[in-house]
Amino acid sequence: MHSTFNQNRRRRYPIPSFKRLFPYYSNYGSYHLYLKHAIHRHRQIHTDKYITNTSTHALSAAEKSLLSKGLSFIPTPKHTEQSIHSAFNQTQSIYDKHKHFQQTPYIRKERTHPFHTHSTWTAPHTDNPPHAPTRDQFRPTYHYTPDNLTEDERHALDRLMTNRDITIKQSDKGGGITIMDTDRYIDQIHTEHLQDRSTYRPLPYSPTKSITTDTNTLIDFIHARHHIDEDTASYMRPPHSPRTAIFYGNPKTHKPNIPLRPIASAIDNPTDNLSKYIAHFLHPLSTLTDTYIKDSTTFKKYIDALPPLPTNAYLCTADVKSLYTNIPTAQGIEHTCAFIDTHRNTLPSYAPNTHIFKIILTHILTHSTFKFQDTHYLQHSGAAMGNRMVPPYANIFMHYVDIDIKTRQDNIDHFKRFLDDLFFIFYDDDGQIDQLEHTLNAIHPTIKFTLTHSRTDINFLDLHIYLDNDRKLRTTLYRKPTDCQSYIHFTSNHPLYIKRNIIYTQALRLNKLIDDDTELRKHLDMLTKSFIIQAYPLQFIHTEIQKALQFTQHELLNPPPPTEHDPTAHHNTVKIQYSTSTRPLKHFFRTYESHMTDTSLTQNQPTPPHLKTINTNHKKIKNIHKHTKTQY
User: Fold this and answer.
1) What sign has the CA pseudo-torsion 621, 625, 627, 631?
2) Contact status, residue 237 vs residue 212, Cβ threshold 8 Å
3) What pTM, to 2 d.p., does this model score?
4) From edge to edge, which strands make up the β-sheet containing 457-460?
5) How far apart are the first and last CA of the chain?
């Protein structure tokens, strides 16, 4: 591919015809008949790729049809009265609070504290707060909504929910789903992970209560010595009803024998808020390393600026094997504290001293417990995926491994890393490339790499990087073989703007990362076909793609800085579960508030509170299914 391209020009993508997307073969008679057959065939291909069924359960046609819509699919809600009732109660509470503070002198504290916790206080209820809408005004006109699942698919959903012989999991990469026999899934969790006594140890009882007590004692100790203030102490404390972390595995369908990636969901466990506190400081710190890359966009900007490569250059990538579980705890804490000391001047004034960081890190990493089925475990080595502070902690640990690599290999250049994925250029004149993986794996006793190298092209993150005729690095999109290109189905009970935004952001990504116009058109055609398979109208797809192509590649790679969030901004938020019956509520709020504000001004009365409405979703298929299988 040639190097002559211009990042400052807008690119064109004429609306594709169905005949271009689905080439016509005359033996099918009319094109309309062929198109119907072609789309049906592509949907079957998509379904076969999206669903990996390793279980002994043979999926029925209805079960396949249901699951092919994706685990993020939201069935049409049968009852919306509860959503409308909830929105009305939220609105009533806001107006009660507004009236209370009009009658009671009160100075609002600016919410500038970094660890602000939301108050659960509610104002005394009044029957008729000023300007508040009545229940009759609030109730929108009923809109009939046809079910987005057929009767057979509804029955299939019920069967899958109650079938405890199979376990359905999101695949680790690619967006597909995997169906496994539950007995095999449980056995695989044990044999691949929990039987490893160098990492996990079973416990005879639930440690959640004792860890909660220990965590509160630690916070009291730190607070009593004035390392943190009262608001921070409240923020760090365990939830009122802490839950035990749940251990599960996501199938790696891109690897032989489909191993499981171990994850311990630690949300609301006793140390979760402590972990959020530490992550608040470690996240920005971890971006200060010279090898850090935020995402594909920042990496592309970096390699675009590189000069042409010499002929002895190899493009290299390396992947760390099981990074989180292979970080030695003592060494990880030591490296993190050393990095904090080095960059102390970048931390905010309210950051505790390094000794306190060390105490909290030790507490979190030595109290990493979880439950699988009815057994509790302690992870006594490494760090658990699912803990909020672990990604920046691992990033900082790997910084010191990066230093060792670059110190021992002076023929490595342009070294960059995204967590456990490395990219670098290796200059080789005497055949050292064949020994490079062995050299890398001798650097640290537990951190091991899988190396890939090429003189011409290589894959890194979601980029395919190649040398053009002038030996400049160029990029196009890379999709893993297991990538299903599965997006929200058009009939799913999501707001229309979300469906528009999915197409728009995907087209923006292609426009930003792909240099060659022919490649861009090919990937946009693939994107369009993927959405057609998910029942999106062609014109609907094309409109969003054209919006994305209004930007040049240079503009997308160099966006303006985001507007800063005002920490003192106050919003009275009403959360509305989206459906066609609740959709008119947004319009109702806008028109009602505008009318009441005008009335208040003309009658010289206090203005009503400003309301902000946001949509929330009903349960997705994966949430409905998960509800029946909380033990594993």
Assistant:
1) negative
2) no
3) 0.89
4) 457-460, 463-467, 473-477
5) 50
